[in-house]
Amino acid sequence: MGEKDITEKILADYNDVFADIMNGLLFAGEQRILPEALENTSIHSQYKAEDEKVHELERDVAKYWKEKEVELAICGIENQSVVEKNMPFRVIGYDGTAYRSQLLEERKKILPVVTIVLYFGTDRHWNSKKNIKSLMEIPEGLDKFVNDYSMQVFEIAWLTEEEIERFQSDFRIVANFFVKKRKNKDYIPDDPTEIKHVDEVLKLLQVMTGDDRYKEMFKKKKEVHSMCDVAERLEKMGIAKGIELGREEEKKASRVEFILRVLEMKGGVDEKTRKRIEEEPDVDLLDIWFTKALKANTVQEFEQALD
């Protein structure tokens, strides 16, 4: 399972976040599932295939929903950061093994299994099919005999403000971030809501955005209480990075100037060579070229040393 899935799994595994996701997406914000009514269950399901070997499927998060000491349902969350064409087949596999596990336990009452897919993509909607029949080529006349199976996909980055307000946990902060990020790629988080699970939220943002600055915040995460703190830290890191880049550009400019001065003393520098030197971004390589320029007797000899 990919790094992105693993990161989100950590946050959603908290009962308050898990219950909040279910209440917000399935029950329009009504507090039907309470965190204390959830119980951890195995995310691993086993089945025996035709090769007689035991295979294992792994869900991202799975919980038992219990009320008044009665098990009512099994809820699972499968996270996706990119569109996966065959996701409906994975979901039917998860649900099927969950039901089979109950049969093997010889339960008197089979509990319903609910699996939802959280899609965090910001570049496009989930543009793949959501049921298994649409992904198969069924011979004419057999369609009505092939059982269909659909999955429920929730596109987090396309939630409305009203839908986001239904969440009460850190997931509201996460959902708001992805919606804003979809609308503005350069969005800097500015949500003043206090973060409860700081470490998990920062890890999620770092992995989902690919921005290592969030990773740097882990070291001083006690100073982060809300996304406003995150924005302030990002700004400071940006300024520091800008200073660092400025120094690097200054160093590069000086190397280029030294090389061209040395070459001009040994003859004219043609436009092609000048452009190559000026556009070279590697300062260490420019240092090597500077040494070559000093050793060369002519510009032509320097140019040959570059090739």
TrEMBL record:
Source taxon at top rank: Bacteria
InterPro entries in the cross-refs: Rpn/YhgA-like_nuclease, Transposase_31
Residues of the Transposase (putative) YhgA-like domain: 77-186
Pfam families, per database record: Transposase_31
Name of the protein in its database record: Rpn family recombination-promoting nuclease/putative transposase
UniProt organism field: Faecalicatena fissicatena
